[in-house]
Amino acid sequence: MENQNLPAKSSGAEIQSALLKIVERQDIDPERLEKFLDLQIKMEERQAKTAFVSALATFQGVCPIIVKTKGIKDKGGMIRSKYAPLDEVVYQVKSILVKNGLSYSFDVTKYSEDLQNIVITVSHVGGHSKDFNYPYNPMDEGGSMNNSQRRKSALSYAKRAAFENAFGIVTQGDDDEAQRLIDTPISEESILEIQDLIEKTDSDFAAVLKFLKVDRLEDLSALEAKKAVHALKQKRSK
User: In a 3-state reduction of DSSP, which class is residue 66?
Assistant: First the structure.
């Protein structure tokens, strides 16, 4: 078969046109044509996956630190912890997701006899998608709620956690805490942790520095270091 190899950087229209010309030929061996088409499909899937990974990395590079604004009170009425509701998180990152061609959907499946599982599917306009799983207890431990409220609370928490994990979103307690981390230089411990994660994820050191927009790790703030660690841990888990 003559001129069967398509250029690696061909556009979708060029690839489709070349395929149509090949299929229309009468002297093509069906078995060889099938192998060629299978190879073409695999190439397109690989390109779609590369575009997906690139879009997710770009999103994580510009995604803001989400501030935890809502408090959880203990029985005495004191705030024992804070969190960022899912609707607030989505509100702050939705435009960035759209700009990078990313979308998501949730599904709930059974994980085990005692646990449910949140499945968040992250999709890219290029055609690739990836499922992220988050097992959780379907009943919140809140003693002041009825069973219906406990189930709703548990599901809400699981969705929020699954969303943050899938997209590599980092949250902070409040604006003052975030500002303190911005003003604080990276610690030696964080430098060593990032270097270790770069090695474990087989990442290119120069590429990581370029992604972080610094010439050396020592130039990072404590806040930027935290985001870098989170992103590298996400990469290691994929």
Answer: strand
DSSP-assigned beta bridge partners for residue 124: 102
pTM: 0.61
| Domain assignment of residue 28, yes or no | yes
- Local structure of 79: helix, strand or coil: strand
Buried b (16+ CB within 10 A) or exposed e, 138-161: bebeeeeeeeeebeeebbebbbbb
Tens of pLDDT, residue by residue over 58-116, are 998 888 888 777 666 666 666 666 778 899 899 989 999 999 999 999 999 988 888 99
Domain of residue 199: give its range. Answer: 184-238
Asked if residue 231 belongs to a domain, the reply is yes
Residue 191 lies in a domain: yes
Q: How many domains does the chain have?
A: 2
The answer to whether residue 178 is domain-embedded is: no
